[in-house]
Amino acid sequence: MRLRNVIIAIVSLVLTGSFINSPGKSYPEKLSGWKIFEGKMSSLKPAKGVVPYMLNTPLYTDYAEKLRFVKLPVGTKAKYTEQGILDFPEGTVLIKNFYYSADFRKPGINKNIVETRLLIKETENWKAITYVWNDEQTDAELEIAGDDKQVHFIDKEGIAQKVRYVIPNQNQCKGCHNNNDKIMPIGPSAAQLNGKYAYTTGSKNQIEYWKAHNMMQGAPALSAIARTAVWNDPTSGDLNTRARAYLAINCAHCHRREGPAQTSGLFLTENEKNITSFGINKPPVAAGKGSGGRMVDIKPGDANASILWYRMQTTDPGERMPELGRNLVHKEGLALIKEWIDQMK
Amino acid sequence: MDQKTSTHLKKIFLISAWVCSSPAVLLAQKDFQKKYQSQMILAEEGTVIELPAGTFTLTNTLSLEGKKKVTIRGKGMDKTILSFKGQTDGAEGIRVSDGTDIVLEGFTVQDAKGDAIKTMHITGITFREVKTEWTGTPGPDNGGYGLYPVQCKGVMIDKCQAIGASDAGIYVGQSQDITVKNSRAFQNVAGIEIENSLRAVVYDNEATENTGGILVFDLPDLIQKKGGDVKVYNNYIHDNNYVNFAPKGNIVATVPSGTGLLILATKGVEVYNNRIINNQSVGTGIISYYVTLKKIKDKEYDPYPSNLSIHDNIYERKSGLPISKDPLGTVIANKYGADAPHIIYDGIKNPKMLDEKGNWIAGQCISIINNKGQTIVNLDAEHSFKDMGRADDQFKCNQ
After folding, report:
1. If residue A128 lies in a helix (H) or strand (E), which one and from where to where?
2. Of A285, A297, B2, B102, which sits 20 to 30 A from B28 (CA to CA)?
3. Are A120 and A251 members of one domain?
């Protein structure tokens, strides 16, 4: 028995290449060691058992494009949950690739892949690690201490942009992915997945696809599943619904009762009912200069007089929100929130 | 080898020896950030992370997360200086979260873009000989908090210094079992602030040249609702007359310039043996949240101060009008001119804490006795200052 374990250990070591030690667990030093992609690494073509997904309203990260995959252990399924992220089985790996197309008007062409983040469900807890891609785009290396990279791209209006893209260190991962001091995924809830994805086999609702491919159990009929509005698609929900969906994914991972920004008393989850907790006419607690001289988080009818708007439109690291991954103002998101507050009575 | 060559070689040798003996100083700044951030990520129980002497510029927050028994130790407050002047990422200089028995000692954090050192959800956090400062003339662009433990249990702040914070230099929020001692807060808006915190002792500190020296506050809409059981003693609280440079919207922006000690809505505070000198608007203020003119929407919040004991302090001030031009300062100036009383009470009492005769029920009385230079004004703010007047001997409790 012991000999068998030793052989397994040696074989897996040979298979995945060298390892780097991180507290409690070893991980492949190179992304290729995970065998997530097949063929040329930079094509990001998923290997067997690795399934792409998207969210209705994703977290903004300095205009980076994101390609997400999930890998469930063979023979396992995620359990449907009505609220919050799905109950994923032990061994699940969520994979998120951050890249910039050279010209946003031609998405997917001449991609510059910057980093690939993995969320791994080990036993009951999730672990977050990130791999930084090399300039040749042949592989990515495990990086625990964070880094930054200058990235250039041409935006949708054809204007050349540059950004100092920041790769978070391992602790900063938990700055966002945090629920009661435990690392948690932010995105893949049933409501966020309840939308269509253009699979190679054709377009299909993701929940339907997961069910059909034995990836999800316990899900009711699609009509009974909530659906997160698409923040920039007015056909998916009214202004209020879309604004709250936007704030929920971009802010509520910290600004919730179980999150790291609980000290502020500002809670931006979609189901927050207390309007003061939601920021309406709420004075700040410890905003410091982040108040921008404004008196309350949300002043109905006046975005310009609202701290929420102020902190979204500044790039000062001591003032901006979110704190990380936001060196560039998200103009379209800011416009949505401005319209929402301005129309509020 | 001639003498000249020998001297020349000696010089080269000396230079290279110096270079070799201080390798950390020569680390490229990005490498410094990576090296120590990696150590903080990989630290195991019992690790001491030693920071070298020198001034190091960092561009991102250094963070310690989920650790037990880890010490970050510099070579001394004025020897190891972490400068965040060019910070591009992260909202704090140092951030410590979700841990047990963490010690920070012997270094300075300078010019952080946001807060200098924030620690959250730590059981057992010690700051020893740590300085946080914003260099240059204090202004609203400075970060909010210097030493900033929040939602921690067991906080020890000893021999620390805090300079130039646009909110509070030493700020303990929503925490329990706190000691702040032997420390100095200088040119902050609030020198030392204990907010929504339970069981705090604040002693042997100096708070000077702040807008307000020491604040004990209870605020609404927070997770830890009630503070109290706070003792403030043996402190030297003097010359806190700095202009209020807090950005508007923050609660401390309402603190009058020239405030020594301010108790806002907190229950169970004892203030004694302090020297409260030359705070030119208010030596000690006792106020309810109503005075801030902010609306209260938190139903669980109790906006009134009660159960206070202020005794055996020394009050002195220079003759002259209160320096604060805000409504409170103006009201006092109009009534008392250059001879403003040291202690100001807004007179707004919680009706639930009074008996049918209007006296405090047991345990809720406000006692102000035996202070040197004790002069008190009761503002009667509840009735638009109608019965405002001197009440020097009216704060004796029978219980």
Report:
1. strand A125-133
2. B102
3. no
Question: Under a CB-based contact definition with an 8 Å cutoff, are residues A145 and A169 in contact?
Answer: yes
For A168-217, what is each residue's pLDDT tens digit?
Answer: 998 888 878 888 888 999 999 999 999 999 999 999 999 999 999 999 99
- What are the helix (H) ranges across chain B? 3-21, 23-26, 29-42, 327-336
Structure tokens at A52: 């792409």
Which amino acid, one-letter code, is at A83?
Q
Please indicate if any CB of chain A lies within 8 Å of the CB of B150: yes
How is A136-160 classified by DSSP, letter by letter? TSS-EEE-SS-EEEEEEEE-TTS-E
Q: Do B141 and A317 touch (CB under 8 A)?
A: no
Mean pLDDT of A104-127: 93
- Residue A89, pLDDT > 90, answer yes
Tokens read off for B71: 């010490």
ipTM at complex level: 0.81
**Residue B160 sits at the chain A interface (C-beta within 8 Å):** no
Q: How many domains does chain A have?
A: 2
Residue A241 burial (C-beta neighbours within 10 Å; 0-12, 13-18, 19+): middle
What is d(CA A94, CA A100) in angstroms, rounded to the nearest whole number? Answer: 20
**Residues present in chain B in total:** 399
Q: What's the domain range around A309?
A: 230-343
What is the token pair recorded at B225?
């609702």
Contact B169, B146 (CB under 8 A): yes
Same domain, A92 and A219: yes
Q: What is the reported pLDDT for A23?
A: 44
Q: Which residues make Cβ contacts (< 8 Å) with residue B209, sequence separation at least 6?
A: B186, B187, B239, B240, B241, B242
Rounded to 10 deg, the angle between the A331-343 and A239-251 helix axes is 130
Rounded to the nearest angstrom, the minimum Cα separation between A192 and chain B is 28
Q: For chain B, what is the mean pLDDT?
A: 91
- Whether A253 and A323 map to the same domain: the answer is yes
Name B215's bridge partners. B193, B262
Examine residue A339 and state whether it is found in any structural domain, yes or no. Answer: yes
Same domain, A107 and A165: yes
